[in-house]
Amino acid sequence: MYEYTQEKSRIFAGIVISALASHQPASDMNELTQERSRLLANIVKSALAGHQIASDINELTQERSHIHASIVISALASHQIASYMNELTQE
Q1: Angstrom distance (rounded) from CA 79 to CA 87
Q2: Buried b (16+ CB within 10 A) or exposed e, 44-53
Q3: Which helix (H) or strand (E) holds 1?
Q4: Per-residue model confidence as pLDDT tens digits over 67-80
């Protein structure tokens, strides 16, 4: 009976050790998967930040072009007014 109990205990211990041994690789894989997800999230955030900077620069460039165009139009209008004034003066 004593041997039977010992054998039963050894079998149970083997089952527990086997279950623990299986749990550790699964735990390690879960940790690696989480780390990979964090890395991918950081890559995506970085790419989005780069895109936002490029978008902001593009917007500023367009605004500068509009300002420049307004200055040129204003100068042309002033020149046209001066030209009309000159014509009126000569008449």
Answers
A1: 12
A2: eeeeeeeeee
A3: none
A4: 999 999 999 998 99
* Type of residue found at 2: Y
Q: Which amino acid is at 87?
A: E
Name the region of 67 (left: φ>0; alpha: ψ -120 to 50; beta: rest): alpha
| The pair of three-digit structure tokens given for residue 33, joined into one six-digit string | 């998967």
Global pTM reads 0.51
Token pair in block for residue 7: 């054998």
Instruction: Give the distance, in angstroms, between the CA of residue 4 and the centroid of all CA atoms in the same chain.
Output: 63
Task: Report the C-alpha gap between 85 and 52 in whole angstroms.
Answer: 49
Sole residue written with tokens 């009976």: 1
- C-alpha 62/C-alpha 28 separation (Å) is 51
CA angle 12, 13, 14 (to 5 degrees): 90
